[in-house]
Amino acid sequence: MNKHLKSRMTMLVLVGWMLSTAGSAMAEEFVVGVEVPLSGSLARVGTGMSEGITVAAEVFNRKNTKHKIKLITVDDESSPAKAVAAVEKLASQGAIAIDGGYGSNNIGPASDAANKAGLVYVTSGGVDEALTQRGLKTFFRINNTAGYSKAMLGLLADMGVKSASIVYLTKEATADLAKDIEKALAAKGVKVTMHAFDPAITDFKPIINKIKLQDKPDVIVMSGYENDYVGVLRAAKVLKPDVKAIVGAWSLATSKMQDDFPDLMPNVYGTALLPFPAEFTTPDGKDFAEAYKKLYGKEPDYLGQFGYVQSQLLFDAIVRAFDAGTLKSGGIAAELRKTNKDTLIGRVQFDDKGDNLNFSHRMGQHQAKQIAIVWPKEYANGKMNFPGVPW
Amino acid sequence: MFAQRIGIYVALAIALYVLVPFAFAGNLYLMSMIIASLTIGGIALAWALLGNLGGLVSFGHAAFFGVGSYASALLVMKAGWPIGASLLAGGVCAALAAILMLPALRLRGPYFALAVLAYAHIFRIIATEWKGLTNGAGGIGNIPRFPVVFGYDFASKTGAYWIVLSLVLAFALIYWRIRDSHAGLALRAMHDSEDATRAVGVNSVLLKALMLFLSAFMTGVMGAFNAHYINFLEPDYAFSGLWTMLPIVAAIFGGYRTVLGPLIGAVVVYLADQLVFKALMPIGHQIVLGALLGTIILFAPEGMLSVFAKRPWRPDRTRVTTGLRDA
Amino acid sequence: MTELVSQALWSGILTGSSYALIALGLALIFGTMNVINLAHGELVLLAAYIAYTCESAFGFNPLFAIPAAIVIVCVATTLTYFLVNQIRKDRELNSLLLTYGIGVMLTNGMLLLWKADIRSTKSAWLQDAVVFGPFFSMRSEILFFVISLALIAGLWWWLTRTWAGRAVRAVASNRDAAKLMGIDPHRVELVSFLVAGLLAAFAGAAIFSVGVIQPGLGISLTVKAFIITVLAGMGSVPGVLVGALLLGLTESLTTTFFSSALQELAGMVLFLFVLFVLPNGLFGTRWRRAH
User: Fold this and answer.
1) Is residue B101 pLDDT above 50, yes or no?
2) Is it the case that residue A366 has pLDDT exceeding 80?
3) Rounded to the nearest 10 degrees, what angle do helices C91-114 and C66-85 cross at?
4) CB 3.0 to 4.6 Å from B251: which of B48, C141, C144, C233, for a disulfide?
5) Sign of CA dihedral A172, A174, A175, A180
6) What is the pTM of this model?
7) What is the nearest CA distance from A175 to chain B, expressed in angstroms?
């Protein structure tokens, strides 16, 4: 009898403990749900964004004595179905907004689910056109494809390019960027040839050889991910096509690529927010860099920077909505819409579709083991080495 | 005795259809997990059916799932079909896709298993490249949800749960009827010894093909259901290897040879993976699934549930061929 | 135009030789035990990650990591053999499922240990270009091309000239007869697993030096290896080389003349074509008839 009683008591205590840890949002503690890929194909970028979000919460909680941000993170496993489930789980745990998301294919369904639950969805991981065409009033993003192509096209214009070959991955985001650039270049009379490749490719030499022997362009433009860049650059280093520059998009002008593949990087261009070593001049930037270093023991990268900025804007909007008493009645979305702030990525203002009006990326170039920002002039801290290739 | 069995079935039906939604409807996340596990369960059942009655192991059921998803989504969005009919049409299209696999039927076990895998890859690539039809890598968004019928919104979690539960139970019923029928007997005999069966005059190739079509049909319907439930499709997701891997682990865990084993296995394995393993090991938690599969194959090839059941599951048939194959 | 074609052919041959390295281990086990080791791709990948660890932690050139890779991968294959041997009924299919499970475990294990980032060699020496006339390649590609030819020749010599190798072929051809001749099939099977591990270690170093690795690569390596094994036909070592070269050439020619987006499709279609039209592979029947 005693044994039964003891085991039943233990059960009750366990159940009670589980229920109590389910967590409830207190008035001054704002629960923000973070839905990011921590496993699966997008694990690396999701982790990077998650780090930036965590740093933002840390900085906010340190500076803000009245309110606290509490983050609950759920891994969406790089899958659309799990992303929806993650948003639902966060909603059921009392989140008042969703921060995060990577990959337009996951963000689409996830932000739909957030909208259904009446929650704001803020991200920097989905550049697809279609995301802001849905008429959702709760969706906000701080970057988009147009910003990337604006930067790359600006650089190409500075170079005075007359012909270009674009090598691009057949996934949606990379293919869209490639097509944007093709259209814009063709409109200016630049000769463009397109070369698509699928994710399974290992040897880029046949493609680069086609470019070297048939296209003979001024510049090679790459739209893909890190493994694609490595493959293209390796093939180019072997075949040595007669080009003046190699330009890529995201994840290329980073210190990580410099560390991992130092022989492939010299003179290569990619989109970059800040030079490396990063010089944070604004007080906001200094806060960010210090907190990041303290939490993770390394220099921040562009993923962390984006994650930080999107969260910073969200937290500010939450506080404003709370003060105005509109937290429960769509106040966060309204306050986000009124955002007009200078951040690490420049001035951010959202239009009525949720896009950041002013977003324009910057171009960096690997120069002598560092990364210098070479476009646009307002943010440049170095001149471009043109013509220049890694061999 | 008969009344007692009916009583048990009615009680089970009430528990599944009424009690489960009543208890969990508030927790959207848990309901999502249950619905996902039943989707996997449907595929697991179809996979086990192909193995038991068709004697064919497949490593590419994701092919049928993806074809069913796209077929249903496209029929509704581009041809204006109603969703109920499109679910069935998705299954039919998957069965049609299986026709392409007919030449593979004369291949021996492992070759067939991997040939189906090659088909899954091929369909995925076609879905990515045929942009005009499938919108390529961008996928199809805003796939219409389940409709409101008699005033009840079937797009809600409970509604979707009822739909998938009914589909899965219907499949189980079909499987059970076939297995206990004359055709089922012939199929199981054929699974044991193809030569003996041919000697008796049973057309083994035709029967295998029919089982392939049926398995493909069921998987395709599950794919179609998933498309309208998640409202989003893309080639990598629709043809993902997980739609092959999870049903295999589920079916083996639950009991490859039984009708309900794969279903129960799916619910247990999926919920354990998402609710327990994932919480303990946010990254790489599927390592436990691999270990589970290996352990079951080695120690309980008839499935975990046969170990737990008080009454041992009746073996479906006695093995005729031993010795030579078991060195 | 000829330059384009000749480079395409050369690239195809180089790629094919590394595919051959990857496929040999799978083909050997399949030949002797009639077991398809679906974890084979993961074992190759494991060797690649060991090469990465040696390079990043100790600064070794990936070539010097091969001995360490051999030891670790052979331990893994021995474990796999031991587990497969425990299967009592229906070995052909159950071993498929068991090795599938082992493969899933290895993939997730590698994800846990090495994270999801892409890795490849940093060695400048390996990445340098080597040019013969119109033929361009990376030094690592040439190096492993030579290594793979040497290993294939060595394997063929071992199978045909040494007693141990002949025992392997005897067991592959007729297990019971071999038993009657005094050959212990279990020893032979263990030996073939070990040799497969050795081959996988070299293959892993190759893919790390030539390309980029990440944890999800394992299953696609296994699929490629299986395709080549089927192309080759049961138990034919020269067949594996020919099949691998065929696959490599198909891929690079598809990329050059059509679109790279279709290269995976071309490989799959080739696989199905051979499966249906030549179920014994390119060399299967000839080998059988020779005995």
Assistant:
1) yes
2) yes
3) 140
4) B48
5) positive
6) 0.84
7) 9
Q: Kindly state whether A84 is in contact with chain B, defined as any CB-CB distance less than 8 angstroms.
A: yes
Integer-rounded Cα Rg, in Å, for chain A is: 23
Q: Which residue reads 């008493």 in tokens?
A: A325
Q: Is the pLDDT of residue A283 over 90?
A: no
Interacting residues of B174 by C-beta distance below 8 A, sequence separation 6+: B214
d(CA C86, CA C186): 12
SS3 sequence, A173-223?
HHHHHHHHHHHHHHHCCCEEEEEEECCCCCCCHHHHHHHHHHHCCCEEEEE
Give SS3 for C280: coil
Tell which residue, B39, B239, B229, has the closest CA to residue B134: B239
Neighbours of B188 (CB within 10 A): 17
Domain ranges across chain B: 2-240
Q: Name residue A61's amino acid.
A: N
Percent of chain C with pLDDT over 90: 25
Please report residues of A whose CB lies closer than 8 A to that of C252.
203, 205-206
Q: Where residue B327 falls among pLDDT bands split at 50, 70, 90?
A: very low
How much of chain B, in percent, has pLDDT values that exceed 90?
31
The pair of three-digit structure tokens given for residue A228, joined into one six-digit string: 């694609």
Lowest mean pLDDT among A46-50, B308-312, C96-100, C174-178: B308-312
Burial of A364 (0-12, 13-18, 19+ CB in 10 A): buried
What's the mean pLDDT in A140-147? 90
Please tell me which of the candidates C3, C127, C263 has its beta carbon nearest to residue A234. C127
ipTM entry = 0.83
Question: What is the Cα–Cα distance from A34 to A22, expressed in whole angstroms?
Answer: 16
Q: Does C146 reach chain B within 8 Å, measured CB to CB? A: no
3-state SS assignment for residue A298: coil
Q: Which domains does chain A have, with CATH numbers?
A: 29-144+281-348 (3.40.50.2300), 147-277+362-375 (3.40.50.2300)
A266's CB contacts (< 8 A; 6+ apart) are A366, A367, A368, A388, A389, A390
pLDDT in tens, B247-262: 999 998 888 888 888 9
Per-residue pLDDT band for A22 (boundaries 50, 70, 90) equals: very low
Evaluate the CA torsion angle B186, B187, B191, B194 in order and state its sign.
positive
Whether the pLDDT of residue C39 is over 60: the answer is: yes
Binned at pLDDT 50, 70 and 90, residue A39 comes out as confident
How far apart (Å, rounded) are the C-alpha atoms in residues B96 and B67? 10
Mean of all residue pLDDT scores within chain B: 83
Core vs surface per residue A63-86: b (16+ CB within 10 A) or e: eeeebebebebbbbbbbbbbbbbb
In the predicted model, is pLDDT for residue A241 greater than 60?
yes
Distance, CA of C44 to CA of A150 (rounded, Å):
43
Q: How far apart are CA A370 and CA A364, in angstroms?
A: 10
CA distance B49 to B300: 19
- With an 8 Å Cβ cutoff, are B115 and C275 in contact? yes
> A227: distance to nearest CA of chain C, Å?
6
Q: Report angle CA A331, A337, A342 to the nearest 5 degrees.
A: 120
Q: What's the rounded Cα separation, in Å, for the pair C221 and C198?
A: 16
Structural domains in chain C? 2-290 (1.10.3470)
C223 touches chain B (CB under 8 A): yes
Look at C111 and B283 and tell me if their CB atoms are within 8 Å: yes
Per the structure block, which two tokens stand in for B245?
């891997």
Would you say residue A295 has pLDDT above 60? yes
- C48 and chain B in contact, CB less than 8 A: no
Helix (H) or strand (E) holding A35: strand A29-36
pLDDT the model gives residue B319: 45
